[in-house]
Amino acid sequence: MLEKLIDRDGGFAFGAAWYPRGGAYGPLRRRYAMVLMLHEGEAVISCDGLSHPLRAGQSALIRNRTTLEIHYPPGVATSISWCEASPSEEIGTGAQLVEEPAIVATSSRAEALQRAGLDLKSDNAAVEIDLRDALGQAVFAAVLLDAWQIMPVAAPPPRIALARDLLRGGYREPWTVAGLAARCNLTREHLTASFRRHFGMTPARYLWRLRAAAGRRLLIETGWSVDAIAVECGYKSPFHFSRQIKSVYGNTPSEIRALRGYRPPSDVAECAMDIVF
């Protein structure tokens, strides 16, 4: 379920802010996934141009498509914290929970996990990054569970789910859309249209995303050469691999390896404007 919302291999970032008399954050102009917790005060989330109020004691599970801004009313003291991740490309099925931000009461479980993530140091030690990523996944899972209890989501049709699972289990294989469709007893046209409807992309693009995620893991966890990783993950050339890694994760293979997968928060990566009144 969680992989339908976030790219669990894309890294996580925690942060907190205090707006004593209100303020604003953003805009972020690319896709993000975020759990925003409002501890005190008020906020209005502007996600892809639509506004959603948030009150103290609530959390919002957000996955924007184009832009994201957060406004804090003037004259109101506001305290927030957040956990960010890279969004999954699957914009159907489970991700329908956050077509608009899913707003739930903040549970003690989710708040405790968030606090543990905030307490981590900011260095790039491998074991700390592993713990940060585990806590990040847990925060999203905890808030998703609360949202799931409010709005259960239907599963994709069995043959479409089979196509997805075949790609997940065999991303190294030289799949073609025609071959995958035949394996699932579907036409190419039906497979492509239904796959896009449920997962937000074609089967081919989904396959390349799986390969990119596997490549990122190998960059972090092994000392293999970029050439060897590219071959292992099914890429046609190291250049193709490097270009897609940069496109998906924002860093080159060498940068990912040097940082051991650390994901900078959006206020650093995006230079988003943060106004405190």
Secondary structure elements and pairings:
Blueprint: E1 12-19, E2 23-28, E3 33-40, E4 42-47, E5 50-55, E6 58-63, E7 68-72, E8 78-85, E9 102-105, H1 108-118, H2 126-150, H3 158-169, H4 177-183, H5 188-199, H6 203-221, H7 226-232, H8 238-249, H9 253-259, H10 266-269, E10 274-276
Antiparallel strand pairs: 1-8, 2-7, 2-10, 3-6, 3-8, 4-5, 4-7, 6-9
Helix pairs in contact: 1-2, 3-6, 4-5, 6-8, 7-8
Architecture overview:
- This protein is an alpha+beta fold and about 280 residues long.
- It folds into two domains: about 1-155 and about 265-275, Jelly Rolls, CATH 2.60.120.280; about 160-260, Orthogonal Bundle (Arc Repressor Mutant, subunit A), CATH 1.10.10.60.
- It is about 40% helix and about 20% strand.
- The protein has ten helices and ten strands.
- The protein has helices at about 110-120, 125-150, 160-170, 175-185, 190-200, 205-220, 225-230, 240-250, 255-260, 265-270, and strands at about 10-20, 25-30, 35-40, 40-45, 50-55, 60-65, 70, 80-85, 100-105, 275.
- The strands form two sheets. It has a five-stranded antiparallel sheet with strand order 1-8-3-6-9, covered by helices on one side. The protein has a five-stranded antiparallel sheet with strand order 5-4-7-2-10, with no helix packed on it.
- A hairpin with a 2-residue loop joins strand 4 (about 40-45) and strand 5.
- Helix 6 crosses helix 8 (about 240-250) and helix 7 (about 225-230) packs across helix 8.
- The longest helix has 25 residues, at about 125-150.
- The radius of gyration is 20 Å and the shape is globular.
- The termini are far apart.
- The model is unreliable at about 90-95 (pLDDT under 50).
